[in-house]
């Protein structure tokens, strides 16, 4: 039939208006997905239908019109903004004589292009194979592999059955590899939990600016671009926050409407960083007209991966594209619930760090210390952790410090000093 691995450069996009709710927004997102996949859109075909056509999805008349457009524009790919059945895909390919893919296949292809780490590539391949396993259908060339023989009567194994068996075997092998990788990731997660370093996970709709904000907070160089799914692989960085101590920031894959279920399942170990975090930064594109719906979609995915119970702070990003000002928003209990920032311009970042420290206040402690002259090593260590708020010196050469840091960081310092620092606390 048609090689599903060919990279098509030009395509016709198809969107069917089945309801009036956010239909145009979905079409806009399809165009963004197509651009992210490196495909050029030659034409967009739309139609209104009350029900889906079982054979062609869009009806026989529109299907014939689509086939004519393919011939006139000489494109070799049709992309549907919907999930197609294997039979619908096959019927459309036969009629139009070109490849036909649906929204799920397009998203999987983008993920396959963007995956860089070993784990990410395994996860994408697993999702693709699971999707493929449900789409293996009997074709006109599905001939029998063997005719049987002595001791082996019957039609034997058909090509379709062989393909299914090979896909199942490949899925099993990938699951074994992913299990090993996820165990290694779990070991790292448990080590962080033992160290009691707070984890702040960045979540949000794709292209909301998570990676740009992550780079701003951590001085990292994670790839960031104005496109959907610019980064897939999770990145963790440990940062010493002034007046607090060490915090781990975790950048995760962005979410999207109708995120393929197989993809969510495959990335579950990666997304677990969001589930086990102490605080989630829900990054929102404040300049996006679909902002409210994007927030809803992210919450749905977080619920699906059991990460909706983690304390969350809303971070409204890209205020430089609006008339909004950098500010903190409080609820009726005077608790900070949202921060308005521009990660690209660096606006409101100090406010965000301030709120992060407040939201992690349960892990936060303030102490007054008086260090003798021979404890300079611990003074230097506290400065290294950016934990010193005020500092003064006595006539005897003692150093008076007011420090602020996480309880976990203070516990580590006590352990490293064999409890010596406990003796330097003023009015404990």
UniProtKB/TrEMBL annotation:
Presence of the UniProt keyword Nucleotide-binding in the record: yes
Xref: InterPro entries: G_HFLX_dom, GTP-bd, GTP-bd_M, GTPase_HflX, GTPase_HflX_N, GTPase_HflX_N_sf, P-loop_NTPase, Small_GTP-bd
Designated gene of the protein: hflX
Domain of life: Bacteria
Subcellular location: Cytoplasm
Annotated function: GTPase that associates with the 50S ribosomal subunit and may have a role during protein synthesis or ribosome biogenesis.
Cofactor(s) recorded in Swiss-Prot or TrEMBL: Mg(2+)
Alphabetized GO MF terms: GTP binding; GTPase activity; metal ion binding; ribosome binding
Binding positions (Mg(2+)): 211, 231
HAMAP family, per the entry: GTPase_HflX
Protein name: GTPase HflX
Key words of the record: Cytoplasm, GTP-binding, Magnesium, Metal-binding, Nucleotide-binding
A Pfam family of this chain: GTP-bdg_M
Source lineage: Bacteria, Pseudomonadati, Pseudomonadota, Gammaproteobacteria, Chromatiales
Hflx-type G domain sequence ranges: 198-364
Residues that bind GTP: 204-211, 229-233, 251-254, 317-320, 342-344
Subunit description: Monomer. Associates with the 50S ribosomal subunit.
CC terms in the record's Gene Ontology section: cytoplasm
Similarity annotation: Belongs to the TRAFAC class OBG-HflX-like GTPase superfamily. HflX GTPase family.
The organism of origin for this protein: Rheinheimera mesophila
């Amino acid at each position: 039939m048609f090689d599903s691995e060919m990279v098509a450069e030009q395509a016709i996009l198809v969107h069917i208006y089945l309801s009036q709710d956010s239909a145009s927004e979905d079409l806009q997102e399809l165009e963004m997905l197509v651009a992210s996949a490196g495909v050029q859109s030659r034409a967009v075909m739309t139609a209104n239908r009350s029900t889906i056509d079982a054979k062609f999805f869009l009806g026989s008349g529109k299907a014939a019109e689509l086939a004519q457009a393919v011939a006139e524009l000489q494109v070799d790919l049709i992309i549907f903004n919907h999930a197609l059945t294997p039979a619908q895909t096959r019927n459309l390919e036969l009629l139009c004589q070109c490849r036909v893919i649906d929204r799920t296949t397009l998203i999987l292809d983008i993920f396959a292009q963007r995956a860089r780490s070993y784990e990410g590539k395994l996860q994408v391949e697993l999702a693709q194979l699971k999707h493929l396993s449900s789409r293996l259908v009997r074709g006109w060339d599905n001939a029998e592999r063997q005719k049987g023989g002595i001791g082996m009567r019957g039609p034997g194994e058909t090509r379709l059955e062989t393909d299914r068996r090979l896909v199942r075997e490949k899925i099993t092998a990938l699951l074994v590899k992913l299990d090993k990788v996820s165990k290694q990731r779990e070991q790292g997660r448990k080590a962080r939990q033992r160290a009691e370093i707070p984890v702040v996970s960045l979540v949000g709709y794709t292209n909301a600016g998570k990676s740009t904000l992550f780079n701003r907070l951590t001085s990292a160089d994670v790839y960031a671009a104005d496109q959907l799914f610019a980064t897939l692989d999770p990145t963790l960085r440990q940062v010493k926050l002034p007046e607090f101590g060490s915090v781990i920031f975790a950048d995760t894959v962005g979410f999207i409407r109708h995120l393929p279920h197989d993809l969510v399942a495959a990335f579950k170990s990666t997304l677990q960083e969001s589930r086990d975090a102490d605080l989630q930064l829900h990054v929102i594109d404040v300049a996006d007209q679909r902002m409210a719906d994007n927030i809803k979609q992210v919450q749905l995915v977080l619920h699906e991966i059991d990460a909706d119970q983690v304390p969350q702070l809303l971070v409204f990003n890209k205020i430089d594209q609006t008339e909004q000002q950098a500010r903190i928003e409080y609820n009726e209990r005077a608790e900070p619930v949202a921060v308005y920032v521009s990660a690209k311009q660096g606006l409101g970042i100090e406010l965000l760090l301030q709120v992060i420290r407040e939201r992690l206040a349960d892990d936060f402690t303030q102490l007054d210390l008086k260090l003798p002259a021979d404890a300079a090593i611990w003074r230097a260590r506290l400065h290294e952790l950016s934990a010193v708020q005020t500092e003064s010196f006595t006539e005897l050469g003692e150093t008076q410090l007011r420090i602020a840091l996480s309880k976990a960081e203070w516990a580590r310092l006590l352990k490293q000093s064999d409890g010596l620092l406990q003796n330097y606390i003023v009015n404990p």
